[in-house]
Amino acid sequence: MKKIGFILIVFLLTACSSALDVKYEGRPLTIGVIGTIPPIENDLIEWKTYSLETMVTNDTNVDGWIVTEEWFEEASEPTYASQFQQLTKPIFFIGIAPYHYSIFLEEQTTLENGYKNEHLPYIQGFVLLPDGTRKDMGVRLNKYMSEQNALEEMYEGVITLISQNS
């Protein structure tokens, strides 16, 4: 029930175009988005919308990726597993809990039959390292903050991880 309420708040924040106050003062970043661009205004962050089909060809044009919840079902289809495995930039799945992000990497697993665990981070991601291993990353929802502050903190975490891992 809390997740539904949180998703509703995210939707309302996005729909109202009320900008989140996300603090980031690092190097300029370009973040590729599959789905809805977050309501974040920061002169150092450029958001670019892409399709699932063009992720791999645009991987060199971005510092990191986010995929939003409305694309999870399609993104978990087997045809995209190899594309996600080819990305060299960090990628985050916003709102993926209770699923594990591996549903996007395994051809035999989809959103319908994916592994569930209520203790997984709300935002999960990974980056493929030069040696071929994968570095897992996650950002949890702080349930002790207001929804607005929790959203800001989560996106600050994602942006920082993209900056540190690209």
Please outline what is shown here:
It contains 4 helices and 6 strands, in the order αβββααβββα.
Q: Unreliable stretches, pLDDT < 50, 5 or more residues?
A: 4-17
Succession of helices and strands? HEEEHHEEEH
Strand order of the largest sheet: 2-1-3-4-5-6
Assembly type: single chain
Outline? globular
What structural class do the secondary elements suggest?
alpha/beta
Strand count, sense and barrel status of the largest sheet are: 6 strands, mixed
Share in β-strands? 15-25%
Q: CA-to-CA gap between the ends?
A: 35 Å
Mean pLDDT reading: 88
The count of β-strands is 6
Number of helices: 4
Helix content: 25-40%
Q: From the alpha-carbon coordinates, what is the Rg to the nearest angstrom?
A: 15 Å
Notes on the structure:
With 166 residues, this protein is of the alpha/beta class. The chain contains four helices and six strands. A six-stranded mixed β-sheet has the order 2-1-3-4-5-6, with helices on one face. A hairpin with a 5-residue loop joins strand 5 (123-128) and strand 6 (134-139). The chain is globular, with a radius of gyration of 15 Å. It starts with a helix and ends with a helix.
